[in-house]
Amino acid sequence: MQELIWSVRPDLIVETGIAHGGSLIFSASMLALLDVTDAVESGAEMMPTSSKRKVVGIDIDIRPHNRAAIEAHPMASRIHMIEGSSIAPDVVEQVHNIAAEFQRVLVCLDSNHTHYHVLAELEAYAPLTSVGSYCVVFDTVVQDMPADMFEDRPWSVGDNPKTAVWEFLKSNPNFEIDKAIQDKLLITVAPDGYLRRTG
Ligand SMILES: C[S@@+](CC[C@H](N)C(=O)[O-])C[C@H]1O[C@@H](n2cnc3c(N)ncnc32)[C@H](O)[C@@H]1O
Q1: How far is 170 from 83, CA to CA, in rounded Å?
Q2: CA angle 123, 22, 82 (to 5 degrees)
Q3: How far apart are CA 168 and CA 126, in angstroms?
Q4: How confident is the model at residue 25, as a pLDDT?
Q5: Residue 46, pLDDT score
Q6: Which residue, by CA, sits nearest to atom 3 of ligand 1?
Q7: Which helix (H) or strand (E) holds 99?
Q8: How far is the CA of 112 from the centre of ligand 1 (A)?
Q9: Which of 43, 74, 129, 153 could serve as 197's disulfide partner, Cβ 3.0–4.6 Å?
Q10: CA–CA separation, 114 vs 86, rounded Å?
Q11: For ligand 1, mutation pick of 60, 94, 153 (most atoms within 8 Å of CB)
Q12: Which residue puts its alpha carbon closest to atom 19 of ligand 1?
């Protein structure tokens, strides 16, 4: 993700699935580094203290202690959280309205990992991905794990993010799987999940 963010240089990262906020803080930190490199390259004497670059995170259940910890973090000014289901029409609309203010958008899907939910997220959010940027679908690896691995989860082999990606790509030829990323990583939770928008 660090290499992707560094090469795409997004001004907005959309993430479904917040949980404890680890990936939100990581993404916000990467955006802060992009701001620093912009400042260095432009010869600015002061490092930027605020930024136009933002992360929008969506979760159906933002627990108060997690929200408090995220809001207390030094990266908090770059983070906007929305509570609700990522596939609820009003949530999708809010995210689209926010994204309209940004030029280069990267999307990460990491919430409910069922085929149905991820396919609906792909339909809702993949179109926000800028050409040349990525929609990253996490936990596609479920398809490659033993079928009895996730006893207390609704997803398994045949019903998971990877099957959703395969279905989505059938009718969205403007996205392709960037195999170079998974081939370089060797071990990843997102095999076939690094989708580059080509047009
Ligand atoms: C794997 S965790 C996210 C982890 C986070 N991206 C990170 O790496 O730090 C999945 C999250 O998805 C959320 N979730 C489950 N169903 C959802 C839905 N329908 N809409 C939005 N979020 C959902 C859960 O509440 C949970 O916090």
Answers
A1: 31
A2: 50
A3: 10
A4: 98
A5: 74
A6: 17
A7: helix 89-99
A8: 6
A9: 129
A10: 13
A11: 60
A12: 85
146 φ/ψ sector (left φ>0, alpha ψ -120 to 50, else beta)? beta
- Asked whether the beta carbons of 123 and 172 are under 8 A apart, the reply is no
Please give the model's pTM, rounded to 2 decimal places: 0.97
Which two three-digit tokens encode residue 102?
């940004």
Amino acid code (one letter) for 134: Y
Query: Can you give the pLDDT at residue 35?
Result: 93
What are the tokens at 32?
Answer: 């802060």
Q: Which amino acid is at 126?
A: A
Distance 85 CA to ligand 1 centre (A): 9
Q: Which amino acid is at 105?
A: V
Mean pLDDT, contiguous 10-residue spans, the chain (199 residues):
97 98 98 92 78 95 98 96 98 98 98 98 98 98 90 91 98 98 95 98
Identify which of 14, 18, 25, 29 to mutate to test ligand 1's pocket (most ligand atoms within 8 A of the CB). 18
Q: What is the DSSP string of 41-92?
A: HTT-SS--SS-S-EEEEEES---HHHHHHHHTSTTGGGEEEEES-TTSHHHH
Going from the Cα of 42 to the center of ligand 1, the distance in angstroms, rounded, reads 38
* Whether the Cβ atoms of residue 109 and residue 122 lie closer than 8 Å to each other: yes
User: Which residue's CA lies nearest to atom 22 of ligand 1?
Assistant: 59
Pocket of ligand 1 (CB under 6 A): 15-20, 22-23, 58-61, 85-86, 110-112
